[in-house]
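Hey, I'm writing a tutorial for new members on how sequence and structure tokens pair up, and I'd like a real worked example in the thread rather than a made-up one. If someone can provide the structure for the chain below, I'll link this post from the tutorial.
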Amino acid sequence: MFKRKLVLPKNVKPKIVIAVIILLILGFVIGECVSVLSVNIKTQVAMAATVYDTIDTRAVIIRDEKAVEGIDGIALPAVADGEKVNAGGEIAMSFSSAENAEKYSNYLALEEKHKHYTELENTAVGSVTDIELLERNILTDVNSYIRSIGRNDINGADNYAFNVNDDLTKREILVGERVDFSASISDIEKKLANIDVSSCKPTGYITAQKAGFYSKYTDGCENMIDYSKVKNMSLKNFDECLNNALSAKGSTMKGGKIISSFVWYFACVVNAEEVADLKDGQSVHVIVKSTDKDLKCTVVKGADVALSADKTLLILSCNEMDKNISSMRLEDIEIRVKSYTGIKVNSSAVHDLDGEKGVYALVSNIAKWRRADILYTGDGYVILSYDDPDIKNGIKLYDKIIIRGRDVYDGRVFA
């Protein structure tokens, strides 16, 4: 069997080659035209953002505090957690038995609920606080509830859940919903009537030796260091405090404690180079990571470091106080040393034009050069200056900054 081979005339081959070449050229030209006419650009609205130089460390909290003493048998707090007390004021109640303490505690809790629902019922026919404030409180308490659950703080979670429910009820009232509290109030009154309060009253009271801030939380570290000597503590003192804090076990079973001074301290050890931009006496913001609480503090000691030192004991003072702060002992914190506020953009959006740094903004489909100073360089992003009167053609808030695009230049028109 023979195979036949197709043979093209000699004058056909060059024509095919020329046709293929022409098609390739046309394809390239059309592709380039499409690329030029339909440039894929991406923009970002210029919005102000703030970033920080920070020091991350673990700190021990030191307060002028003393656990309540002189309690025999079973004890309960006589004042609310976080309440201010006077010298000689009643702060704890003692009972002859755990059963009596529980009965009396239940009675007080029911009385508090009765007062709460009565006040809410009266609020329903009056005025309620601003709805935006309520919604902010709800969001804050929901976040705090989630963190409390994460820390296995059941008591704290219960308190935040109660606050959320309370504010949701107030919100219903504010938007015109009718909320009937009569059934709840009636149920509480029946429970109160069934408790023989005279048979379970306290057998004695403990009074405060000093005026101050009452906290029901104790952990055994109240006397781990002399409060008056905190500013002179050494690295060895700190290590002892740290070990005590690590082994501490919180307790609310005793009479609590009295915090005599509202000025308290964070003590922490950090690398010497980390405090290069700090000075003793400087104000800084400290973020407590477990709660995201932002505290304004003052650097007391540790920013002025000897040249040979590689570590320094940093002492920060604070005068804010509430029941959550009063229970802190060992916390992971973020010390914000320096802040930078500007426009945050991807590093690739920054260009160099005639020796100046800047970006291109899209104005009415035209690329306009916006000169800017780089204030801060992060991981893949920068913070740029904006609205600076000393910078001609600087970035303005709400400029549409081009963060991605091909062949971008000042004055280019984009269809």
